[in-house]
Amino acid sequence: MNILEIIEKKRDKKELSDEEIRYFVKGYTCGEIADYQASALIMAIFINGMTDKELTMLTIEMANSGDILDLSKIGGIIVDKHSTGGVGDKVSIILLPLVSSLGVKVAKMSGRGLGFTGGTVDKLASIPNFNTEITEEEFIKNVQDINISMISQTRNLAPADKKMYALRDSISCVESIPLIASSIMSKKIASGADKIVLEVTYGRGAFMKNIDDAKELAEQMVRIGKLADKETTFILTDMNNPLGYTVGNSLEIKEAVRFLRGECISKRLEHVVLELGASMIKLAGLGDDLEENKKKMMENIKNGKGYNKFIQMVKRQNGDISYIENLEKFETTKFTYNLTSNRDGIIKQLKADVIAKFVCELGAGRIKKEDKIDSAVGIEFYKEVGDYIKLGENLATIYSNTVLSKNSLLNFYDSSVII
Ligand code: URA
Q1: pLDDT of residue 130
Q2: Could you tell me which of 119, 224, 292, 385 has the fewest CB atoms within 10 Å of its CB?
Q3: Could you list the active site residues?
Q4: CATH of the domain at 401
């Protein structure tokens, strides 16, 4: 077998065998296959696609290229949740303690964010002393003891995907639904999940710009999951507007805490949390009736069990819970700016991509991997899409550690808000 024959076969729209796919993934990961040859094959896949059988093999081989987390010691069914990315996305921080309080075992490894705003781990790291880098033994012990742990991804998961993703990025081959599907699913399989719940986002603030592509991606991942024996379900989320009221790391933690306490619940965020949670509970074998599962989640917000689980997790990972109990303790920024509505009307759009870039420039996200994040900066909205606002009413507060000119605030308002 050699790589030239494999490239030729895919170029000529033929199906690759399991051995050929394994040969490629292994050879490319260890450097025996050159970038230019891998580029040719990836471009041929981009153009000619792959069958579900080929894609599943590619996914499994990418997962097997590095560490595979063994969560079997925890016992029971481990259901993982994955989002293809959003703006103001604090879903995991609310959802996972909530389903954990209902018996779902949560062993969550998340990556740090790159571009736009911070990832879940960056948000959790804004809680003083919260340790996202505990050992794997501690991680597993936490799930055994308190049913939840959320940490940063430290192991070498799916290195073949890392290499292939960088290559795809350099040859304009990122926007391929089959390649995105196998890339995401390889990391989920490597992270030890038995079953997977996906949130596939679409719109201005998402990878997929329209709902049809998002659905195709979701269905492709479900098919890979089925063939790889990892039951997978999905929901589709509109990411034209931010999710919830805040964008920015500690602001999102505060919103998540208020949500868990039942004090402030964005309608859109509630919908996403309940849909994903109902599926997680079902996949974990703890209730087949999705509507009933949603009711149980709302009950655990009312009776404080979801909030208490979050506190328990923060305490267990050394976080200072006095900040959670008294949200005023979180450090705030040197400057705040209010944005007021310039008319009466219904808010039609708060453009997620524009807001994300603005907040990233304030310091909430990373442009390069090494960049430091400013936890306190961001934006807090007082209304969401669909709400009515009056002329002169406060729409949002911007938290910044740099001085912002009147002009830049006006530009931001004009380019992000449609009333
Ligand atoms: N996210 C991934 O993990 N992989 C892709 O290919 C695209 C988005």
Answers
A1: 97
A2: 292
A3: 82, 161, 168, 183, 187
A4: 3.90.1170.30
Q: Do the beta carbons of residue 397 and residue 380 sit within 8 Å?
A: yes
* Amino acid 207: pLDDT: 86
Q: Residue 115's pLDDT is what? A: 65
Asked, for residue 36, whether it belongs to a domain, the answer is yes
* pLDDT, tens digit (0-9, with 9 covering 90-100), for 345-375: 999 999 999 999 999 999 998 877 778 899 9
Neighbours of 318 (CB within 10 A): 12
- Determine the structural domain holding residue 21 and report its residue range: 3-49
pLDDT one-digit tens code per residue, 45-94 = 999 999 999 999 999 999 999 999 999 999 899 999 999 988 999 999 99
d(CA 238, ligand 1 centre) in Å: 18
Q: Which positions ≥6 away from 300 have C-beta within 8 Å?
A: 98, 101, 102, 306
Residue 155: per-residue pLDDT? 80
Antiparallel, parallel or unpaired: β 106-110 and 148-152: parallel
Is 283's pLDDT higher than 90? yes
Last residue of a domain, one of 279, 300, 324: 324
Regarding the beta carbon of 207 and ligand 1, being less than 6 Å apart is answered yes
The yes-or-no verdict on residue 287 having pLDDT over 80 is yes
Residue 102 pLDDT grade (very low, low, confident, very high; cuts 50, 70, 90): very high
Residue 112 has pLDDT above 80, yes or no: no
Whether the CA torsion 131, 133, 138, 141 is positive or negative: it is positive
Q: 237 CB less than 6 Å from ligand 1? A: no
Q: What is the CATH number of the domain that holds 11?
A: 1.20.970.10
265 and 177 assigned to the same domain: yes
Closest atom, ligand 1, to C-alpha of 165? 6
Place of tokens 């390649």: 179
Note whether residue 19 is domain-resident: yes
Rounded to two decimals, the pTM is 0.93
What's the chain's length in residues?
419
Average pLDDT, the chain: 94
Mutate to test the pocket of ligand 1, among 46, 165, 173 (most ligand atoms within 8 A of CB): 165
| Pocket of ligand 1 contains residue 180 by CB under 6 Å | yes
For residue 263 the two structure tokens come to 């004090």
Say which CATH number the domain at 310 has: 3.40.1030.10
Ligand 1 pocket, 307 CB below 6 A?
Answer: no
